[in-house]
Amino acid sequence: MKELQNVLSHLTVIFVGVFLTLVVLNVYNPSMQFLSSTISQVFLVGFCLTALALAIVTIQDNRRRAAAAYRHETEAARAKHVGGTFTRRF
Amino acid sequence: MQQKKPLPGIVVVLLDLLGIGAALAIFILFHHVLPLDSGEPIQNIVFGEDTPSVVETTPTPVPAATESAADSETAGDPSMSPTAVPTPTPAPGDFSASFPTDEPPEEDVFGSYVSDNLRIVVTEEHTDDAVYFVADVWIRNIREFKTAFADGTYGRGRYELPSDMASDVNAVLALSGDCYGARPSGIVIRNGDLYRESISGDVCVLYSDGVMETYYADEFDLSQAVDRGAYQAWSFGPKLIDNGEVPASYNTTSAIIAHNPRAAIGYYEPGHYCLLVVDGRQPGYSDGMTLQELSETFLSLGCTDAYNLDGGQSAMMIFNGQIVGQPYKGGRTISDILYFGGSDTE
Known about the structure:
Largest interface: A-B, 24 and 25 residues
Helix content of chain A: over 70%
Largest sheet of chain A: none
Oligomer: heterodimer
Order of helices and strands of chain B: HEHEEEEHEEEEEHEHEEHEEEE
Shape of chain A: rod-shaped
Radius of gyration of chain A: 24 Å
Distance between the termini of chain A: 47 Å
Number of helices of chain B: 6
Number of strands of chain A: 0
Number of domains of chain B: 1
Low-confidence stretches of chain B: 49-83
Strand order of the largest sheet of chain B: 2-3-4-13-12-14
Radius of gyration of chain B: 22 Å
Shape of chain B: globular
Mean pLDDT of chain B: 86
Helix content of chain B: 10-25%
Structural class of chain A: mainly alpha
Number of helices of chain A: 2
C-alpha cells in the first residue's frame, strides 16, 4: 500500500509539472492548442485517474489508520477499565 | 522487516523533474512530431467534377517561365483543354479586366516582377520601431494564388522551412502560412480542396471569385463557405479589420497581441492582394508590431480586409528566391506557405 501510494504521488507530481508547463506555453501560443489537443486529453485522463487512485489509496490508508487508532484506543480503555476493576477488587 | 533507507530529498526532486521532462517529450512527440493525418482531402470544393470551372480565362500569351505549369494544369482537367471556347464575359476567378497593364515603379521599391498573369511590387517600409515589407500582388486568374504543404503533402508533423518550400515550387513570391500542422483543429482549405473542417479561432477564406473575407470563429459557417466556392482558407488569426476599422478587441491572448514579428495578408479587391511581413524581436533593428499597429498598417495601405498568419519566428517572405528582410533567428520550419508564380503542387 505504501509503495503504491508513493508511486502514485510521484506520478501526480509529474502530471502537475506537465500541465503547469502546458498552461504557460498556452499563454504564449494559444493557437498551438497545447491544452485541447488529443494527446492533452489523454494526459488529462491519466492525471485524473492517477489523482483518483491516489485519493482512494490515501483515504483507504487514512481509514485503516483511524480504525487501528480507534481499536487501539478502545483496547486501551478496556484494559484501563479492566485494570480499574481489578484494582478495586484488591 | 528492515526498512529501506529513503533517497535524499534532492534526488527525489531531480527524479520527479526527470519524469516531467520524459512526459513532456512524449507529449511533444505525439503533439508535434509524428505525422498524424492521411494527406487526402475530405472534399474537392472548387475544381471537382460537379462544380463549374472558374478557369475559362480570356486567352493570353503564356510566358515561357509558366508554360509548363499551364500545361500541367490543363493535363487533368478537360475544361482547360486548348479547344475551350473563351467566354464573352470574364468567368468568376478571371480578373483580366482589372489586371494592370502599366509598368511597375522602379524607384523606391525592394523588387518587382511582371508577367502576363502576375504583377508583384515589393516595398520596404519603416516605422519608429519596426521594419516591414509589403508585397502588392495582382493576379489575372485565381489559380495564380497558390498554397503548398511541407513535403508536398497535407498532414500534421510535416515541417519545412518556408524558403525550402518556395524553392520546391519555384515560387516568385511566397509567405509563411498558418502552420495548420501545429494544431489538431482549424479549417484547412487549399487550392480548392477541403482537408480539415473543425473550426479553431478566426478564419480567413479566399473564394474562387477572388473575394477574400475574414470571419470571427463563432460567425463562420463552413457549409456556406463551401457552397460559395472556398478556394483557400486559413486558421490562425486574428481578423485584423472589422467593418473597415481596427477591431475593438482581438480574439487571442496578450502575448500574441504584443510586439512580434508578423506575417499577414490583406485584400483590396478580387485579384488584388497584399502580403506583409514584419521583422521583429531584434532590438536596434526592428521590434515588430502589435496587432493594433498591424491593423492600422493595413488600413493605411487601403485594404478592406486583413488577416494575421503565423508570426514570430515562423514569419518569412521569399521573393525571387531570396529571403526578404531578417526573419527572427533565421526562421523555422512550418507546415505551409502561400505563393505566387512557379509551378503547381499536385
